[in-house]
Amino acid sequence: MSNILCLFRPSLSVELLLTELQRNKIKKSDISCFILKAQTPFKNGLTDKDPTETTSLADLGFIFATVFGVVGASIGFRLTLGPIIWGIVSSIIGFLLGFIIDYFFTRAYKQKSHSFVLISICCRSEQETLIKKIAETHQVLGLTVIES
Fold it and tell me: Mean pLDDT in the chain?
């Protein structure tokens, strides 16, 4: 006998996995599901992002600063202070605008699911490869086999 542990994000693929396992002669009594909720980390203003995330709050600010700087310098040829001053001023305005948009508006939409579903499947040794294949087709995050 073996125990297979699979880790998933909560989604429809978990339901599809359970249905497919039952179709392949895995009894309902041999399947256990657990919901793991992560602890909410201490939020500290600008540093409350996930450390594995590859973007920062300044990214959108830099993009807006570049666009505004180019447009401001182009328009600055026709204005009194010249293109350099207007390019710098518009870059600063663009950075602040991008930073404010990223800080206030997109933070509400970047809420990630911090919960996981752990599925434990008790099966015979010859069923291991079948269960592994089924789990891999349903977006498994992690999978391990415990021999007993």
Answer: 84
For the segment 96-112, the average pLDDT, to the nearest whole number, is 78
**Structural domain boundaries in the chain:** 2-37+114-147, 57-105
The owner of tokens 């992690």 is 142
Q: pLDDT band at residue 110, thresholds of 50, 70 and 90?
A: low
Q: Are 146 and 128 in contact (CB under 8 A)?
A: no
CATH of domain 2-37+114-147: 3.30.70.120
Sheet holding 31-37, edge to edge: 31-37, 115-123, 2-8, 142-147
Burial of 16 (0-12, 13-18, 19+ CB in 10 A): middle
User: Closest by alpha carbon to 55, among 101, 117, 11, 102?
Assistant: 102
Kind of pairing between the strands at 2-8 and 31-37: unpaired
d(CA 66, CA 60): 10
Entry pTM: 0.54
